[in-house]
Design a protein that fits this description.
Blueprint: H1 8-25, H2 55-63, H3 67-80, H4 89-98, H5 104-109, H6 114-124
Amino acid sequence: MAELSIDPQYLRTLIVKVRAVMGKEGTVAPDGASNFTDDDAPPESLQVEPGDLTREELVAELRGLSPLEQAELVALLWVGREDAEVEEWDATVERASERRETPTESYLLDHPLLAEYWLEGLTKLGYGGLVSGVEEIA
């Protein structure tokens, strides 16, 4: 099993947070000329809930991680989307650290399926799914 410096339980929480943010960002209506009174709900209804996690909060959380943890998150993305193999984990983390050209949080959050890739990577590394020790149902 590849060693993570990030606590797997923290990573599971981060996956849920990313899902929440990505879900909120996807609620903007593509048709700006729509009359919201004719719609089932105003397009922004899911984005204005008090206490919702915002993208800015997630960005701040990702920025607060160590460079190694940030590299591991990028490597986990690559493993999850099959750009790297589990057997190459250490080299993949090193490559992620060396290839940093943009802020890590920007790179990560530009991937709409980030949470799913992280979850797949976590499973491939042998840490299970969202619940520790429980296999994901396909």
